[in-house]
Design a protein that fits this description.
This protein is α/β, with parallel strands linked by helices. It is 44% helix and 11% strand. It contains 22 helices and 14 strands. The strands form 3 sheets. It has a 6-stranded parallel sheet with strand order 2-1-3-4-5-6, sandwiched between helices. The chain has a 6-stranded parallel sheet with strand order 11-8-7-12-13-14, sandwiched between helices. Strand 5, helix 8 and strand 6 form a beta-alpha-beta unit. Helix 11 packs antiparallel against helix 13. The longest helix has 33 residues. The radius of gyration is 28 Å and the shape is globular.
């Protein structure tokens, strides 16, 4: 059931086709979704379940239930207590409360049950329900294979050796054999096995020895705006807040123009190699060299938002924000005096001189303020005191490449080893507002089954860098003719060496730095136009298909399904991709000026309404369901 929302002038509504599969009789069904991350944020699965809840409730109403671990704090802050409307559910809950966890079939013939389990933590539910022959349809989803994550974290050449790994031996050596067996058993017990991307489907077929029945890409709740300039205004507002933080962090060394400063960021789990932090840091070193070599007046401030063990805020960082606030208060006080005296002088018909407007005390206050901004040390590269900073991978590599926020560096680094919060005394911003204020998200992951971070950038109209080893990157390569023109830069980490991938990432970032203000605004408009591709209103259909398939396999007499239907969908949509925008060359790097010193007033041929209309006429859905095995 589609969500109601305002229609953006660049929306692709009416272009993507309606879902044609028969609707399930949800009034006769119960849907349970079981995951460790229900109201318990650990990683991206929390985002999947949270953002998908709205469209699932629209379809299933009170027949949809989530099951997850009980943590009192999460219960108090994220959900509201209520009584289940279904008496069978009430009976099952009472049995759990009084007797502990037991599996029983108390629902009778009607209604039928679909149980969707996420990841190996929920695997016992699949295994026990099938071994005890409980009549219900089961779906099991893996968002990343357990062994795959461990192998990539150990710097194995994973994707080139998928067929060569001795799976049992590798799992045993990493002391995860029991968990691996649980995951594999759940995969083979489920009626339907799904995963989040094609690249993870290939991985799962080798690691878990079953090819996924359905690929279910991860979506988001896309908020569209009635006017194009609205999300651009949000970018400007959030960017101003980041600039205020930078003013405090770099006090005493603020010798660069904030109006010619770009904000890059990387965020997510602290997995140094899997998330591509290693090649990102090396690329930043090379970018710094290129900006210095070409005497580019652009400065890049890079944020690393990755949680690490800390014991407190960095004193220098706190002092910087205090100095910034004190300077603001001083300037505000002097401004009020200045304004009042100027007003009085003008009323008397005289033009005052500086000595009559500002007295000696005012100059003393300003001199003290200037003296307070003097700094004898470099701005810190981290906002917190990191435990074991001598062995911390990010800090160790910052020392290796020598980016210490010195005056000559055109690339500045800020490591924020804590998730963002609007209550922080340092950077009081929620993650969404922070992303909106940045210019580029960089996520050069080596192991990323999907990759929500670049997806979140896309729906907010912020360009991003991803790789062809992430589910998101593969999804965009498959469905967009020239992703870079739409603000999605894809680094080749599959067929290139780390050195070549690093050079490619450096070139992407350097080309981005050479763009004019107008070119960046145009690119953000194009990026935002891809957001419909990631909307749950469309991607949710893959989950619907998985449930249909599970019911057909569990209850073939009651739920019929045309085995040729997915092929019909495939033939109807095959070959359609987002075309490259008419008004841009194949790559943004080709459209920049030959000299780094250029004006922001480019007269580039571009009409947003005309380009959006062309998209409506020429773009069709790229969604293809796999054939029913």
């Amino acid at each position: 059931m589609p969500l109601s929302r305002s229609l953006s002038m660049t929306s692709l509504s009416g272009v993507l086709p309606a879902w044609e599969e028969d609707e399930l009789p949800v009034e006769d069904l119960l849907l349970f979704e079981v995951a460790w991350e229900v109201t318990n944020k650990v990683g991206g699965i929390y985002t999947v379940i949270q953002t998908k809840a709205k469209i699932t409730v629209d379809e299933w109403g009170e027949n949809y239930y989530m099951m997850g671990p009980y943590f009192e704090n999460n219960f108090k802050t994220q959900v509201e207590g209520c009584e289940p409307p279904n008496p069978a559910i009430r009976k099952a809950m009472d049995a759990l409360i009084h007797n502990g966890c037991q599996l029983t079939d108390e629902l009778g013939d009607k209604p039928n049950v679909i149980a969707h389990f996420h990841e190996w933590q929920a695997g016992p539910g699949v295994i026990l329900s099938r071994s005890r022959k409980i009549p219900m349809a089961t779906v099991f989803s893996t968002h990343a294979t357990l062994l795959g994550r461990y192998l990539c974290a150990g710097n194995a050449d994973f994707y080139n050796n998928l067929e060569k790994f001795d799976i049992d031996k590798e799992a045993g050596e990493r002391q995860i054999y029991h968990r691996y067996c649980l995951e594999r058993a759940a995969v083979h017990c489920a009626h339907v096995f799904t995963t989040v991307s094609q690249i993870t489907a290939v991985e799962a077929s080798h690691m878990l020895h079953r090819t996924p029945d359905v690929v279910t890409p991860n979506g988001l709740n896309v908020k569209k705006f009635s006017a194009m300039h609205e999300f651009q205004n949000l970018h400007s507002t959030s960017k101003a807040r980041i600039q205020e933080f930078v003013r405090g962090h770099f006090y005493g060394h603020l010798d660069f123009n904030l109006e010619k400063t770009l904000f890059f960021f990387i965020a997510g789990r602290y997995e140094f190699s899997n998330k591509g932090v290693d090649i990102f840091l090396e690329s930043l070193s090379r970018l710094n060299y290129l900006l210095q070599l070409h005497r580019n007046d652009m400065t890049v401030v890079v944020f690393f938002i990755m949680p690490a063990k800390t014991n407190n805020f960095n004193v220098e960082s706190l002092k910087g924000q205090a100095v910034r606030k004190q300077l603001w208060d001083t300037a505000h006080t002097v401004k009020e005096k200045f304004g009042k005296r100027l007003y009085d002088a003008l009323l008397k018909g005289t033009i005052p001189d500086m000595d009559s407007i500002l007295d000696r005390d005012d100059f003393t206050i300003m001199k003290r303020a200037i003296f307070a901004t003097q700094r004898h040390s470099l701005p810190p590269v981290t906002t917190h005191n990191v435990l074991d900073d001598s062995t911390d991978p990010i800090l160790s590599n910052i020392r290796r490449i020598g980016l210490f926020n010195s005056r000559k560096d055109r690339v500045k680094i800020i490591f924020h080893p804590e998730f963002l919060s609007s209550t922080s005394p340092l950077l009081p911003m929620d993650y969404e507002d922070f992303v909106r204020g940045c210019n580029l998200g960089v996520f050069p992951s080596y192991y990323e089954p999907w990759g929500y971070t670049p997806g979140e950038c896309t729906v907010m109209g912020i360009p991003s860098v991803t790789t062809n080893l992430s589910g998101f990157g593969c999804f965009m390569e498959e469905h967009v003719s020239d992703p870079a023109a739409y603000g999605v830069y894809i680094v080749d980490r599959r067929s290139c060496s780390p050195e070549e991938s690093c050079n490619q990432l450096t070139q992407f970032m350097f080309s981005f730095c050479q763009q004019s203000l107008r070119q960046r605004v145009i690119q953000r408009n194009r990026t935002e136009r891809l957001s419909d591709l990631l909307d749950w209103r469309y991607l949710g259909r893959f989950y619907i298909h998985a449930r249909h398939l599970a019911l057909n396999r569990a209850f073939p007499d009651k739920f019929k399904m045309d085995p040729m239907y997915p092929l019909k969908v495939s033939n109807a949509t095959e070959g359609f991709r987002y075309p490259r925008p008419y008004s841009v060359p194949p790559s943004p790097s080709a459209s920049v000026h030959s000299t780094p010193h250029h004006s922001d007033d480019d007269d580039e041929p571009y009409d947003e309404d005309e380009e959006a209309e062309r998209d409506r006429l020429n773009i069709k859905a790229p969604f293809v369901l796999g054939a029913v095995p």
